[in-house]
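Could someone model phosphoenolpyruvate with this protein?
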Amino acid sequence: LASRTFRPEPTVIKVGDVLIGGDEFVVMAGPCAVESREQLLETAEIVKKCGAKVLRGGAFKPRTSPYSFQGLGEEGLKILAEARERTGLPVVTEVTSTEAVDKVAEYADILQIGARNMQNFQLLRAAGRTGKPVLLKRGMSATIEEWLNAAEYIMNEGNFQVILCERGIRTFEPMTRNTLDLSAVPIIKHISHLPVIVDPSHGTGHWRWVTPMSRAALAAGADGLIIEVHPNPQEAMSDGPQSLKPENFRLLCEELKKIAPIV
Ligand code: PEP
Ligand code: MN
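Reply:
Sure, complex below.
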């Protein structure tokens, strides 16, 4: 279902007024995690002003350690919904369990399936059944074929609104958190009709590499980006080191606007 032979024309996904997979390059941005109402509303206003078209923020966080901040849960979803009302930005947020799918789908415009759950087939099916657009991250050790098969699970439920997201894979290189596999972008574009976006925040793990890899993602033919932005990265409860400060995010958007139409 995901292949170009099945459907030759590119899939364009409409989320509110935003088209993903069309002619425009869509920037999604926001904090790794929703930490408080103030933090999220402030970040939402900032990213909107810079040109982001979708707001990100995790309410259910899949943390490597059980002792790390796990997210605000439903309270976080409510804050995301309030930010959408105030800014008009549609919201993408992660769902980490099958039981939470319906709850998250009540609030979110796009359901995010994280790298750690890329092969949680029950979760993929349940997300597919909501009929909502699904942002499917590449598993950290997944081949492109495995990733596309994960998309098949969602599409098999009759839901073709799948956005693929390259977020870096595990390699032997310790200077970055992951190795951002930008070659996946033209490969996916060649073999699939689905839109592909790039997450240079998780892909590199360091804010300094986010801007150059964003440019590279655009040059490689990605349909957009998802970027972590925090008003005060030093105080972030998750992924501070890879989060852009508002000013750096603004500069990144200015740069991108010179190269491509950002919706
Ligand atoms: C995230 O988007 O904050 C996240 C946890 O991403 P990933 O699943 O790619 O690690
Ligand atoms: Mn994160």
